[in-house]
Amino acid sequence: xxxxAIDFNFTVEQINRLAEEATNEYNAIxxxxxxxxxxxxxxxxxxxxxxxxxxxxxxxxxxxRYFHPDKQICDASAEADNKFMGCVIEGYMRLDVYKAVRxxxxxxxxxxxxxxxxxxxxxxxxxxxxxxxLQISSKKRALLSKAKKRLVQLEDEYALxxxxxxxxxxxxxxxxxxxxxxxxxxxxxxxxxxEKHAVSTNVFVYNxxxxxxxxxxxxxxxxxxxxxxxxxxxxxxQEAVELRLEIAKLLGYESxxxxxxxxxxxxSADEIIDMYEELxxxxxxxxxxxxxxxxxxxxxxxxxxxxxYTGFFEWDYYYYSYVTSEKKRDxxxxxxxxxxxxxxxxxxxxxxxxxMLGLYIIPAQEPNVWHPDVEMFEVWEADESEFIGHLYLDLxxxxxxxxxxxxxxxxxxxxxxxxxxxxxxxxxxAVFPKPTEDKPTRLSFDNLEMLMVLFGQAFxxxxxxxxxxxxxxxxxxxxxxxxxIMRRWIYEPTVLQQLGSHYLTGETIPDQLIKGPITDGxxxxxxxxxxxxxxxxxxLLIHSATDKPVDVKQAYYDLCKQVPFMRNNDTGVFHxxxxxxxxxxxxxxxxxxxxxxxxxxxxxxxxxxxxxLYNRKTGREYRNEILRPAGSRSASVSLERFLGRxxxxxxxxxxxxx
Length: 658
Fold this sequence. Notes:
The chain is an alpha+beta fold. Helix content is about 55%, strand content about 10%.
């Protein structure tokens, strides 16, 4: 059995050679496929897919750019990735190769004889070629190329505009309620001899101030400043929407949404819109009660300050939602983080996944890693009968490391040339301060929740096993579900007690610190649902136009008028309309977060919570029916096999609404 770990001692020359050899081999395969007198699955599809299966070492080398401490290696890795991806993109633009692929796709006699996984492979490869316009005339392809290039340019310009944050100046008194920690991170500016703090319109700073600032005028000023700054991006979004419709029409679709939904679990925007309408119907009876509760608190504040109550606006929502619902969660943050020292959390999270999935996980005896801070683990079946893969924990910040919380897949669980399974290898990457004897790093609940999500994603990669690398990724809607399921676990008192022990005494986290502040955190208010629903509906509506593009600004304004929490007193600014995801590949896709939450609640309550969190049968079936197949079959099939029925929204409605 080959248990060899990845050797991270790459040289620049080795990385360059891997990229050169792989691209030369791929181009030779493309040339051979294009010349096939009678294309078949074996002489056309298999060579293309097998090449992708066999470039494991190059895929690993091209991932080094994210975490390797040597800048020269990172640069070589990035260059190799660009060369590799450029080669693949050019390959999918070759009309002669597409004709061969399409011949196989259209050969119904052969397609009927293929296994379900092989048939899905043909359909996936054909769709990738077709989306490049290879089935349309050369004249239309030229127009398509021009539109796509302009769309990329717009997205780049939008990103540059969005990256340039402005600042709003406030005195310390005007920032009453904002923590000293947050204020310490703000630049001090003197205006007319008065000391003021520069509050950035960066989304993270903005959200903190809008949540904690007690003064309405402070919240309103920041809200308006941020909204006005964002107005410059509306023109980019409007043109992008128009270009997406033009591209869809050139490719033969009625709308951009129709083009995007091809190949997804959800087959049309109407399905999501219907789901949202049902959600809004169910929420309707709760909305007035929440508005009454929030406005009563604001009115009391205005009366106490001797000020006139003029209404409840969007800049009020997050502050008063915090005041009325979330303060007890903050109390947990103050005391609870004493129970989550990072030095112990990694191994405790591993224990949870061992029990859940029926695995045996041990530290590597001779770890081969890229930095001394990195921990390496071997993942086995519980009875040690089969090796599964390697897990790496790279949790501490350091110079030259990518500052992000994510997972990196270095190897994936596809089939080797000899028919055996490649052993997956995945990194859980975080940027926490490294603990010292004098200053232990303790995690907030939000940090802990984020790590649990990342571990859920990492173990999804470790447990996958498919024939073709092209089929490793599940449909768009399903790729975050494994992480979202584990997000739900973190709210269980027994799980928190398993994870938590006092960093000084080792004492288990007390019941009273968990129950209420945390267990209530799985519930949501109408506003917490209606605001993202409004954004998602806007995204779907502007991209579902079939005749002429929708006015993106007016469409958003019309939706906001239906939501009492989103009134802005005619300030003329629009916040969510300029959300970066509309211009970063998630257009017609923001529904995925709520959709995945609904699916995760169903899985959690109908199987894990019902049968026991560590029920071996449930864990085994979750691995076999959800994680192992990955994208080799539709996630709809995987869900139905695991649940024993089609997914339902009932668990979400029952357990999320307050």
